[in-house]
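ARCHIVE CARD
SHELF: 3
SLOT: left
DATA:
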Amino acid sequence: MVDSHSETERFRQLQNQLREWTRSPEEGQLWQSIDIFDQDDYDILVVPSFSVDQEVGDKVTGFLHYEERLLFSLIRLRNPLTRVIYITALPLCPIVIDYYLQLLPGIPFSHARDRLLLISTFDGSLQPLSQKILDRPRLVKKIRAALRPHKSYMVCYNSTDLEQQLSLKLGIPLLAASPEVLNWGSKSGSRRIFAEAGIPHPDGSYTVRNIDDLVEELWQLWQRQPHLQRIVVKLNEGFSGEGNALLDLRPIQEHLPTQDNESESKAALRKQLIEMSFQGAGETWSTFSLRIPELGAIVEAFVEGEIKRSPSVQGYIRPSGEVEIVSTHDQILGGADGQVYEGCYFPADADYRYQLQEIGLKVGEVLAAKGAIERYGVDFITVQDPDTKIWDIQAIEINLRKGGTTHPFMTLRLLTNGTFDYDTGKFLSQQNQEKHYISTDNLQKEQYRGLLPNDLMDIIAQERLHFDSSSRTGTVFHLMGALSEFGKLGLTSIGNSLEEAQEIYDRVVSVLDQATDPKSLEEDAQDMPLPLPINWSSR
C-alpha cells in the first residue's frame, strides 16, 4: 500500500528544486524574471491535462482540443538550449506545429523542431490526460528516459493528485500549486480567501453537499437580502462557468421569507430549482443535482446592474513566495445568462484596473502564505453607479490554475519580449509601444465546420492574416483542431491600440465568413480549372 504521507513529502522535495532553481547559481540572487520558463537549458514537459470533472468539461464544445491552448509553450523554443516535450490525448496536426514554430524569432525552424518531442496517447476518451499517461507504464518510461535529470520540470493546466502522481513517477518537479492547496481555488475556497483578505464579495454560502442544505442556504440568503432577484448556484469544481445555474426568485416573490412562512418559502424554492437556467449545454436539474453530492455546490447573490462588466486579474507566485501581478482583462461572457467565459480584452478598463491589481496582490499574498505557487487569477463583477460613474467591485472566484486569459497574454509576451507595467496596467513592447488584444476560444459558426487546419493556413497566407513580426501586430490562432468537427476556433488579435486589435479581429471574422460562405464556395468551384490526369504508371 502506498504511503500518502511519504508521497506528499517526496513531492515537496521535488518542488523545493524549483526554489533552488529560481536563484542564480552565480550570484545567489533571485532571477529578475518571474518565470523560470525564461531560462534556457531546461527540458519542459507540457501536460495540458484538464483534470476537472469530465462531465462538466464535456459540456464545453471541443473540450478535448483545449489541450492546444498551451501550444504557446512552443515559443519557449526560442531559447536555443530549451527542449520541450508536449503530450496530447490525440495527435496534433503537423501543420499546426509548423505554424507555431514559424512564429519563433531568429531561430531556424529545423533547430527548434529538433528540440521538440510530440507524444500522443491515442486516447480520445473523457479521462484526464494525466490519467491516460499514468495508465500507460511504457509511455511513462519513455517520457522519463527523454528527460534530463535535475534539468527538467513539468507544467500543466491545473494541478491535482493525478499530476502529483505523474510528477513522482517521472522524478521531476511540477511547476504548479500543490494539490494540498487546490481547495483554495474552488468556489467555496475562493470565498474563504476573500473573507480572510477582507475583499468585497457577494453574499452567499460555503460548500453544501445535499439538496436540503442547498435549499436552507438559498432560504437564508434570500432572508438576509429580501430584494434579491436572482441567486447563482455553482458547482464547487465548475469549469469556465459551465457548472453554474441561475435561480430566478421573481416568479416566487409571494413566498419571500418571513418568520411565519419558512416551510412554505422553502417548498417554493425547492420547486423553483427545477426551473433554473443552466449554463452547461444540455444540463437539467436532474443531471445538475446529481453532481452536488460529489462536487459540492455554493449559492451566491447574483450581482445585478445596468452597466456591468466581468474583469479579471492574473498574478504569479514564485516558488520562493514573491507575488507579482502580470495582467488584467475585461472578460467576454456568454451563455444563457452571461455566465460562461468566451474571451477577453487586454488590458482591463483604466477606471478600475489598478484596483484589480491591488486586490490581486492581496489574494496572491494569502495564497502564497498557504503554499500556493505559479499562476492564479481572480474574477470580478463590476457595476457602475449611473450617477457617480464609480465602479463597485466584487470578487467572484479564484482560479488556482492556468485560465482562459493565460495563453493570450503569454503569447503576447513571448512574441514581443515586452513587459507589463504595474503602475499603468499597460503592456509595452521592447520598442516601448503599447500592445492591446482581443482574444477568444469561441469563434464558432456552423459554416466553419469541415474547414481543415490546412484550409485555414491557406486562408491565412492568402489574406495575410498572420502575426507580423516586424510590426508585432496581427492574429495568432489556436484550437485549430476543433475547427473541422465543431466549426470552432480560437484566436488572439494584437494591435497597438484596442481599436486596432478590434479591427484586426473583425477582419479575420469577415474573411473566414466569406471563405466559408456557400455561395462563394460554389463560385470558386465553378472557376477552378480541372486537375491534370494522374499518370499512375509513372508513380
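SLOT: right
DATA:
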Amino acid sequence: MAGSVTEFALPLHGVSEPRPAFSSLCAMFAHAVATVPEVVALRGAGASLTYREEGRAVDALARRLAALAAPGEVVALLLPNSIAFRISYFAALKALAVPALLNPLYRALELERLLREVNPRVLLCGETTQALAHELAAKLGIPAVLGFGAELSVTALAAEPAAPLNRREAGAEDLGVLLFSGGTTGLPKAVPQTHGRLLIAVRCVDYSWPTRAQGEVWLPIAPFTHVYGFLQGLLSPVYSRAEVIIPERFKPELIVELLARHRVTVFGGGPPAVYAALLNAANLAGADFSALRVCPAGGAPMPVELLQRWQNATGCVIHEGYGMTEMAPISGTTDLSGVRPGSVGKPIPCNEVQIVDLETGTRVLKAGETGEVRVRGPHMMRGYYNRPEETAKVLRDGFIYTGDIGRMDADGFLYITDRKKDVILVKGFNVFPREVEEVIHTHPKVAAAGVVGVPDARTGERVIAYVVPRPEEALDADELAVYIAERLAAYKCPAVIRIVTALPMTGAQKLDRMALRAQALGDE
C-alpha cells in the first residue's frame, strides 16, 4: 500500500466505525484498493469498476499526466459526474498535479475566466465537452487536452499493465484541489486546499454523518465540482471504502429507482429542492428504502414541513449541515447533538464559530444576538489562489468571515438567518448579481440592469432581473433570456426579466439593491 498511515489528534467523537487516518488522499485511496480490491467502487452509465480496476485506471492515467505536467502544475477537469471524473481526480493527485474542478455546465466565457485564473497545463474533458475544451485550449495556450471517449477509455486504462510512475508519494502539504468560489466578495476565485486539510474535512463530514468503514452504498447528487458534491461523491466514499452509484442525470423517478434497486445506504441529497422533487416522484409510493441510513442536507435552509414529510416517507431523519468552499463542513445536526428545526446544528468539535457585530466584526455577541458568522478550524483555507487582496477581506484575525448573518442559541445551535452580501442562493449554488448583470450589459440594446433574488419554495431563491433598454430601443424579455442562456449556466439565468424605464438609485447614484429587492418582492 502506498503512503504511510498516521493519526490526527482531532477531538472528533462521532458514532462511525473507526478507520485509519492517512498521510494523504493518495494513501487513503491506496488503502481502499489494497484492502477491498474486489468491492465495486463505482457504478455509472451502465458500467461498473472494482477498487482494483479503479486503482489500475488511476495509475495508467497518472502516467500520462506525469508526462504532461510537472509536480505542482494544474490539471483542469471539465467533466460531468462520472466514473471518469473520479479516476481523473485521483490520477492527477498521484501525478502530483493540482486538480482544478470546472463545472461542465458553464459557458465558454465563464470557463475562460476560471482557466486564466489557474493556468493549467492539461485540460481533461469528456465527449460532451471536447469541442469546447479544444477551443478554450487553443485560445488560452493550454498545452494539452485529454478527452475521454475515442482518445481515452476507462476500460482500456483499467486493463493497462503496471509500470513505474517515477514520482514521489504525495504528502499532507501538497495541494489536493482547486475549487471555485465567489466567497463573499464577488466573482469566482480559486480556493486551494491541501491533502492534509481535505483529510480533516473528510473526518468532519463523518462526524456529522457517521458511516461504516465498509459496506455503505452511496448515491451523490451534487456536482463533483461543488464542495458538497466533491466531498460526498469523491472523498468520503473512498474513506468508507464504499460503492458509489453515479446517476447520469437528475430525474426524480430515476433517483428513486436507483435508491431502491441498489439498496443505497447514504443519500447525498443536498438542498431542499432535491428532497422535495423526490417526494413528488411518481414511483415514490411503495419504493423500498429499508437500506437507507444517512440523509445529509445543505446548501439552503430546510423547511420543517419538508423534514417531516421525508421522515414519514422513508423513515429517515434528514441531518442538515453548514459549510462553504473556504471551509467545509462547519457545523451539523447529528444524532449526538439532536435536530433543532431551523438550525444548521452545533459546530463540529474541532471548529470555532462566533457571531460578531456587523460594524467592526471584532465584538463577539452574546447568545441570541444576530451578527456576522465567522469561523475557524483546522481545515479552513489559507487564502485564495493568487488573490492576496481578496484573501485579506475574508481572512482576518485567524477567522474566515463568511458574509452570513446568524445567531447562536444558549445551547450552541447555529441559525443562519440572512447574508451580508447580495449573493443569491439557487438550489444550493451561489449566484452573484454582478456576474449576471455584466452579461446582460453586453447586450447591445441594454442601458442598465439590476439583479436580485427573491425567496422560492422549490429552489431557495429565484434570480430576478430588472433591465432598462437603450433610448429608442425595443427590448424583448424573451429575446434577452435566450441571449443570457447562451452565456451563463442555467441556474444563474434569471427566472424573470422585467423591462423597466429606470432602476432605483442611491444618493451616490449607485444601484439601490435593497430598494430593488423590495420592488421585486412587491411585484411577485
